[in-house]
Fold this sequence. Notes:
The protein is an alpha+beta fold. Helix content is 29%, strand content 21%.
Amino acid sequence: MTQPCLVCARRPSDPHHLHFAQRRALGRKVSDEFVVPLCRGHHREVHRSGDEARWWGKTGIKPIKIARKLWRTSRLKGSPSLGIAGRPTETNGKKDYDHTITPEAS
C-alpha cells in the first residue's frame, strides 16, 4: 500500500495480482510473486477491462518484470519499503515511464 501506482504514481495503492502471469490452481489466487501496486481507480479499471494483458499493453508498462523485481528485492532485503519512480520520460517521442525500483528514504 505504500508503493505508488505503476500507472499514475498516486498513493495509496492496492496490491494487484497479475492474473495472466501464472496459471491458477483450482480455487487459488496467483502467487504473491506476481503483484504490482495500482491505485484504486486503475485497479478497478484493469479488473473491468476483460483482457488484462491487453490493458497492460496499452499502458506500455511491463508489469511482470516489475513484479519480479519487487519480489526479489523484498526477499533479499527483508521486505523494505520500496519506491517505484513513475516519472514520465521521452523515448523516441513517445511518453514512457521510468519504473526503476529504488529504496525510499526513511
